[in-house]
Amino acid sequence: MKLLTAGVFLIAGCLTVNAETITYVTPAGSTTAGGAVDASATFVTGAGTLSITLKDLLVDPTNVAQLISDLDFTLSNGATSGTLASSSGQEITVNSNGTFTLGSTVDTGWLLNSIVGGLELNVLGTPTGPSHLIIGPPGAGGTYDNANGSIAGNPPHNPFLNQSATFTLDIAGVTDSTIITGATFSFGTVAGQNNVPGTPGGPPSRVPEPATYVLLASGLGLVALMQKFRKSKSVGRDSSARV
Known about the structure:
It contains two helices and 17 strands. By secondary structure, it is of the alpha+beta class. The chain has one domain. The N terminus is likely disordered.
């Protein structure tokens, strides 16, 4: 039994799949032509994949120029091409009085583009744009009281994406050791304007991916089953000895 237990943990250790995680944020006090901005992007690199969670953290924005419309980033392996495998975000429509209506979780409609030295996720210039920009949360009263006509009741800009969007990219050459070396956030509906370079929100962290935990749990389940089987055999032998 000790040998079996050791073997399970040895297998789990050998097959551990790690992922590198790093978050970039807009520096404190960042502004654009529309006013203050506050955003974050969390990157997780794995074997041939990159997942991104892009968030608008600005509460009760005033102007559409404060909403996220694209993200440029560079990788340590120098990748400039890839495929957007999937993306999702919840739609939200801001009404003319500042109230809002939540919609379904949908494909973002954003595209992945190659840029000099890196990659770009962008909604402007797509069939979806200029809607599906990422908007931050409403104010304390549960409404967008500060929103002007570029947000509230604006048909071309609605619906937005509610606070965050997630993206999964397939990128050849990316490994669990690949890191993000830079990220720039862009805001508003005019391409090339309102760009804010991000800064790391902390050092990269290396964590096991969920598949590793599944493997370990399966191994522990096997150990428990074998222990139960061994115990039942032992009880059977003891009963036979007393006959």
